[in-house]
């Protein structure tokens, strides 16, 4: 029973990770494309490519930092409530 429970827990964590990645990609596409590509055409100019690259890098870094802070906060709050939590951030 515990093994099945652990498998379900891992599956849910994986599904959440995929959903978060999809959300990040969608937000990057929306925000960076809107910022960097003023007049869409058949191809991107070199300045548009550079802008998109910088925007995606910054957006991803900000998302990573916010995610880490949020996870740390959740664990502090749960720890303060007396819950023992084991996290695998792999």
Structural description of this entry:
Helix 1 (2-36) packs antiparallel against helix 2 (46-80). The protein has 90 residues and is an all-alpha fold. The chain is 78% helix and 0% strand. The chain has 2 helices and no strands. It has helices at residues 2-36, 46-80.
Class by alpha and beta content = mainly alpha
Give the biggest sheet. Answer: none
Number of helices: 2
Percent in helix? over 70%
User: How large a portion of the residues is in β-strands, by DSSP E?
Assistant: under 5%
- Specify the overall morphology: elongated
Counting DSSP E segments of at least 2 residues, the number of strands comes to 0
Q: Termini separation (Å)?
A: 24 Å
Rg from alpha-carbon coordinates: 19 Å
- Identify the quaternary structure here: single chain
User: Could you spell the SSE succession in H and E letters?
Assistant: HH
Q: Mean pLDDT, rounded to whole units?
A: 84
Low-confidence stretches: none
Domain Tim10-like: 10-71
Protein name: Mitochondrial import inner membrane translocase subunit
Family: Belongs to the small Tim family.
GO molecular function, one term: metal ion binding
């Amino acid at each position: 029973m515990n093994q099945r429970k652990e498998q379900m827990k891992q599956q849910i964590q994986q599904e959440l990770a995929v959903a978060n990645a999809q959300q990040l990609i969608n937000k990057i596409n929306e925000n960076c494309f809107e910022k960097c590509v003023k007049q869409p055409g058949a191809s991107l100019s070199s300045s548009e490519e550079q802008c998109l690259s910088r925007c995606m890098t910054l957006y991803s870094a900000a998302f990573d930092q916010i995610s880490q802070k949020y996870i740390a906060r959740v664990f502090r709050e749960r720890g303060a409530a007396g819950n023992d939590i084991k996290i695998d951030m792999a």
